[in-house]
Amino acid sequence: MSLFEMIRLDGRKALVTGAGQGIGRACALELARCGADLVLNDRPGSEELLETVEEIRSLGREGWPVEADVFSSDGPESIVRDAMERAGAIDILISNPAYSVRCGFLDYPLDELDRTIEGTFKSGFRLCQAAARQMVNRGRGGKILLISSVQAEMPFEGCAPYGAAKAALNHLTHSMSVELVSHRINVNAIEPGWIDTPNERRIFSDAVINAAGTDLPWGRLGLPEDIGRAAAFLVSDAAEYITGAILPVDGGFRFKDMRANTQPKVVDPE
């Protein structure tokens, strides 16, 4: 079987959260291009979600919207239940919830700490648990992919709870891969670097983002499509022997200060 055939996802049913925009949307579209039908989740009242659904359908794939707050007390479990009702199965889960407020460690509010851990780690845990139970009950294996972050490895000022929550997701990825391997459920994670998403555009000005891109090793910020393509590979049969992996997709962002032109000049000995 060719690599192209192995990356095809025909007949697979995927659930993608945060699919209205940014990384979630790009992952959903890439899976649809590979042949998957998709259940797409975003917050209630999301106009972007309906736009993604229409684009999925324009590609000739099924797209079912599920409007629900993944941060709510029964959000993750209700999303999985609704996905099962609409699609009849979940072969693939892309878990993409996250919440972050930038604030220094000394002043970080405890209510925002709780919301960051709840939204970034616990929501992901509960989504994966609910979807994995369905996969185990069905007995046909499956693919679980978590969207982590390079901040799981890189400490950024003002982002301590978010980075800690993403590090917890990385450990969860490893733990799930061990516990679910006997059920032939692959569990992996992607660590995006600095990705040009609508949310980043709300935080930073266009001038800041454009200047930052030229400073990165690859010469630009990442695009949501960069993450979508990596996701499509990891949930395909081409990655059947990969589980428990954490894949950085960052254009070298983690090592941007390791290049020769960023290092102190060595003084030639006389």
UniProtKB/TrEMBL annotation:
Protein name listed in UniProt: 2-dehydro-3-deoxy-D-gluconate 5-dehydrogenase
Enzymatic class: oxidoreductase
Keyword annotations from UniProtKB, A to Z: Oxidoreductase
Organism field: Rubinisphaera italica
GO molecular function, one term: 2-dehydro-3-deoxy-D-gluconate 5-dehydrogenase activity
EC number(s) from the headed UniProt entry: 1.1.1.127
PANTHER family (UniProt xref): OXIDOREDUCTASE, SHORT-CHAIN DEHYDROGENASE/REDUCTASE FAMILY (AFU_ORTHOLOGUE AFUA_5G02870), SHORT-CHAIN DEHYDROGENASE_REDUCTASE FAMILY PROTEIN
Pfam families from the UniProt entry: adh_short_C2
PROSITE patterns reported for this sequence: ADH_SHORT
Designated gene of the protein: kduD
Highest taxon of the lineage: Bacteria
Stated family: Belongs to the short-chain dehydrogenases/reductases (SDR) family.
